[in-house]
């Protein structure tokens, strides 16, 4: 399950060369700084570049407050091999603080399942293991996007280009989108198109030319309903324990009852 989360992190946040500074990595993010999506908004993306196409669906299914009393939303995320995701390979539901967005700082609760396994909540102490180290080090405040047609530096030998709005054909239909391109020296790291017509993340399409990988909006709407059945608060939670320098294995909390 951690691998699937990392796939999404790469798709949404992008990948930057190791020598890029923190500010440079922030500029390569495609997710909005603040999650303003309304309850009911959903979008399905088709991912191409692997052995076979994959699909991921994101949906805002409720509003709540986080542990600090800040406005937050419940975001469901599903991965699968069919665009309708009637039998998803993995599902996540996370409580995302609106002001912090989809980031390691913004997610305060997380429920996960894969296949036919029962949904379980991840213990708060284990949440950092579901995010890359670079994302965990990224502060919640992010710089503003450059004005249209302007080129700005994003770190040593790195540049971000932003074009003027144009009509973009996607699997979900033709939308008006602003193209952006991130480069390291002459290497194009990624291209992405931002559109206010696409709900939730406003991400219409993203490409990683070097690895021939892309993610493109396939369907979207405003009628999302919860798909995951959450466990009882008394059910065991998933924890992670270090193990000899290897990736921490999944464990369950011990039952407190004798």
What do these coordinates show?
The chain is mainly β. Strands 1, 2, 3, 4, 5, 6, 7, 8, 9, 10, 11, 12 and 13 form a 13-stranded antiparallel sheet that branches. Helix content is 9%, strand content 40%. The relative contact order is 0.20. The chain has three helices and 15 strands.
Compact overview of the structure:
The protein has 258 residues and is mainly beta. Helices cover 9% and strands 40% of the residues.
Give the termini separation: 30 Å
Give a quick account of the main beta sheet: strands, pairing sense, barrel closure.
Answer: 13 strands, antiparallel
| Number of helical stretches of at least 4 residues | 3
Q: Write down the CATH class.
A: Mainly Beta
State the helicity in percent bands.
Answer: under 10%
CATH architecture label: Clam
Listing every helix as H and every strand as E from the N terminus to the C terminus, the arrangement reads HHEEEEEEHEEEEEEEEE
Organism: Melittangium boletus DSM 14713
Protein name: DUF3108 domain-containing protein
Task: Give the helices and strands, then pairings.
Blueprint: H1 2-13, H2 22-27, E1 42-48, E2 54-65, E3 71-80, E4 90-97, E5 107-114, E6 120-121, H3 133-136, E7 151-155, E8 158-162, E9 166-170, E10 173-184, E11 187-194, E12 203-208, E13 213-221, E14 238-240, E15 250-252
Question: Which features would summarize this protein structure in a list?
Answer:
13-stranded antiparallel sheet, 9% helix, outer membrane lipoprotein receptor (LolB), chain A, 15 strands, 258 residues, mainly beta, 3 helices, disordered N terminus, DUF3108 domain-containing protein
């Amino acid at each position: 399950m951690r691998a699937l989360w990392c796939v999404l992190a790469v798709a949404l946040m992008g990948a930057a060369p190791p020598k890029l500074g923190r500010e440079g990595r922030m500029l390569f993010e495609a997710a909005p700084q603040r999650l303003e999506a309304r309850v009911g908004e959903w979008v399905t993306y088709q991912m191409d570049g692997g052995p076979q196409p994959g699909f991921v669906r994101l949906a805002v299914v409720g509003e709540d407050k986080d542990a600090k009393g800040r406005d937050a939303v419940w975001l469901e995320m599903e991965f699968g091999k069919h665009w309708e995701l009637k039998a998803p390979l993995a599902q996540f539901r996370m409580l995302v603080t609106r002001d912090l967005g989809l980031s390691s700082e913004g997610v305060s609760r997380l429920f996960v399942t894969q296949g036919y396994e029962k949904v379980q909540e991840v213990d708060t102490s284990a949440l950092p293991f579901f995010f890359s180290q670079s994302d965990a080090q990224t502060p919640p405040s992010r710089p503003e996007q450059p004005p249209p047609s302007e080129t700005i530096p994003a770190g040593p030998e790195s540049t971000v280009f932003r074009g003027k709005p144009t009509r973009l054909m996607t699997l979900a239909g033709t939308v008006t989108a602003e193209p952006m391109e991130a480069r390291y020296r002459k290497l194009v790291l990624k291209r992405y198109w931002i559109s206010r017509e696409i709900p939730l993340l406003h991400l219409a399409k993203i490409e990683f030319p070097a690895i021939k990988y892309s993610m493109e909006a396939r369907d979207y709407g405003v009628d999302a309903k919860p798909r995951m059945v959450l466990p009882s608060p008394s059910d065991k939670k998933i924890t992670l324990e270090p193990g000899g320098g290897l990736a921490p294995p999944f464990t369950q909390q011990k039952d407190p009852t004798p």
